[in-house]
Amino acid sequence: MGSSGASGDLEGEMEVDAFRRLFPLRFHERHLLESIRPDARPLGRARESTVALGAVSSADGSALAKIGHTTMLAAIKMEVMTPSSESPDEGCVAIDFHMPPICSPFVRPGRPAEVAPVIAKQLSDVISSSGMINLKELSLTTGKAAWMAYLDIYCLDADGALFDAALLSAVAAFSHLQIPAVSINEDGRVVTVSRADGDGKQAKDPVIKEKRKLTLSCVPFSLTCILHQKYILADPTAEEESVMETLVTVVLDSSSRLVSLYKPGGPVLAYTSAVQDCIALTRHRVKELQKILNEAVSDMEVD
Amino acid sequence: MEIDRPDGRTRNQLRPLACSRNILNRAHGSARWSQGDTIVLAAVYGPKTGTRKNENPEKASIEVIWKPRTGQVGKAEKEYEMILKRTLQSICVLTINQNTTTTVILQVVNDDGSLLPCAINAACAALVDAGIPVRHLAVAICCAMAGSGSVILDPTKLEEQQKMEAFSYLVFHNSVLSMLPEGSLHVDGEPMEHGIITSVTHGVISVDDYLYCLERGHAASAKISDFLRRSLQSHAPSDPSKAA
Fold it and tell me: Using the beta-carbon criterion (under 8 Å), do B211 and A258 form an inter-chain contact?
C-alpha cells in the first residue's frame, strides 16, 4: 500500500487528531509497539467500572452499569403468569436488549443496530446456561402461578464491550431484585400486596410471601478481548473495535468454569496460547467485578 | 469409557457427509451439505455492485440471509447471520472486488443437531461453486461434552438437548496440502490449521475440558477437510452459460 510510505512522510507534519482519523490502524499500532493504548491503559487492563443499584425506582430490580463510557441500564419487572405444562414448577425470564438512537451516531430510528438482537440472544444463552437463577424459586403455586421476570437492558452509550456491560448490569439488577409480596384474592387470582391494605383482605391466602430476594449461584462475568497480530487487548473501546476486528468474549462464573467462549470469526486466528491468555485475563477481571458488585450490594443494604 | 450413542456411532465418528454443488439454476453458486439428517442448502449471488450504507466501500462486503425451516426470523437467526458473516469475511479475499456485495443465502432443510457447522460448510462449498475468491476454506465441527469429561463429535439434536452438558461449534482452517516441508507452515509451534476462526459454546464446562474439545475438533477437522477436497475435485466444471 502506497499510503504507508506517504503517511511516514506526513507523520512529522500532521496533527495527532488528523493522523488518528486518516490512518487509524497505524495510529493504534504505533501505540501497541510501546505496549500501551491511546487512553494510556496497559494492554491487559480493563476500563474503570461502576455499578449503581436501584436506578429505576418503579422497577422491581434495576441497575446502572458503566464500563469506561459504555453505559447500560437494566430493569426487571415481575408479572404473574401460568407456567407451561412441561415445567409446572418453574418461572421464566425474558431478556430484551435495546439500543436506542441515543447510544451511538450509527443507530438511527429507521436503522436499528444489527448487533442488538445478537447481544440479546447471547445474554439469554449465558444467563440460562450459567444456572445463575434457579427457576424453581420463581414459582408460586405449582401448575397455576409463577413469576415471569421481564429484564430490559437499554444501552445509553455504546463505547465498546457492549456485552460485558450488559451482562454486568443484568447480574446487578438480579442482585437488587426484590420479588413483590403477593396473596390470592377471593376470585383465585394472585394480587400484589401493598403495605397499606395488607391486613384486611386475606380471606384465602395460602401464598402470602414477604418481599424476598433471589439466591444467585455461579454468577457469570465476562471480558471481551481483541486479538491483533500477536497482541491481546482487553476491554476495547468502540474505536479499537472498528479498527481491529477480531473479538473474543470469554464468560467465566465465580467458580472459574467456562460459561461461554465466543469468537465470531475475524481475520486473526486464535491459537491455544491466545485462548489461554484470554481466559487468564478474564479470571483476573472476574475478581475485580465481583468486588465491585459486592460493594454495590452492601452499600444498598446499609441504606 | 464408552458412551452408547443411540445411532451406534463411536465417540469420534462423524455422521455420513454428503455435498452436492451446482443444484440451483439461477444462483451463481449453490451447494447442499448434509451431515446425517441435518441438511442445509446454500446459495451465493454476487458480486453485485455497491455496498450497504454502513459497510466499508474499500472492501468487498458479504451479506448473509438465514432462513429457518419453519417460523419467522428472530434473534437466533440474526445471531447465526452475524456469525456466518464474520466467519466468511475472514476467509474471503476482500480486497479483490472492491465496493461489491456478495449475498449468501442459507436455507435450513432439516435440523437434526450440529446446524451451524453444517451451514458454514455448505456456505464454503457454495462460495467455491460461485467462484468467489477465497484465501482458504473453513471446516466446522460440533463437539459435545458429556458430564464425565468425554467428548463426542457431531451430536444429533437428541444428544445436544438431552444428554450433553455442553456443546461447542468450532470452525478451523482446512488442512493445507502442500509440496513444501512441514516446518514452513507452523505459527508459534502450532500448525496453521489449529487456529480457531470461530468458536461458539453453549453450557458450562471447565476450561480444561474446553481445551480438550479443541484438540478433538482439530482431529475431526482434518477428516472433513479431506472430504471437502475430494468432493470439490470430483465435480465437473460448472456450466459456462451461467453468467454473473
Answer: no
The C-alpha cell at A152 is 430490559
Q: Say yes or no for a CB contact (<8 Å) between A111 and B53.
A: yes
User: Look-up: residue for cell 481491529?
Assistant: A244
Residue written as cell 444429533?
Answer: B156
Nearest to A195 by CA among A178, A207, A210: A210
Of the two residues B31 and B179, the one the predictor is more confident about is B31
- Tell me: the pLDDT tens digits for B84-104? 999 999 999 999 888 999 999
Best to test chain A binding among B94, B187, B196, B216 (most A CBs inside 10 Å) = B196
The amino acid present at B60, given as its one-letter code, is A
Q: Bin A35: left if φ > 0, else alpha if -120 < ψ < 50, else beta.
A: left
Instruction: List the grid coordinates of A14.
Output: 500532521
Q: Looking at chain A, which residue has its C-alpha nearest residue B138?
A: A265
Nearest CA in chain B to A242: B56
Confidence (pTM): 0.88
Q: Per the CB < 8 Å rule, is B78 touching A118? A: yes
Element (H, E) at B117: helix B115-130
Q: What is the pLDDT of residue A225?
A: 94
Q: Which of A22, A106, A118 has the highest number of chain B CBs within 10 A, making it the mutation to test binding with B? A: A118
CB–CB contact A263 B207 (8 Å): no
Bridge-based pairing of strands B186-187 and B190-191 is antiparallel
- What the block records as the C-alpha cell of B105 is 443465502
Predicted-assembly ipTM surpassing the 0.90 threshold: no
pLDDT of A203 reads 43
Q: With 80 as the cut, is the pLDDT of residue B132 above it?
A: yes
> Do A269 and B192 make contact, defined as CB atoms within 8 angstroms?
yes
CA distance B228 to B85: 21
A residues 126-145 near B, CB within 8 Å? 129-131
Question: Residue A295: CB partners within 8 Å, gap ≥ 6?
Answer: none
Grid coordinates belonging to B122: 455448505
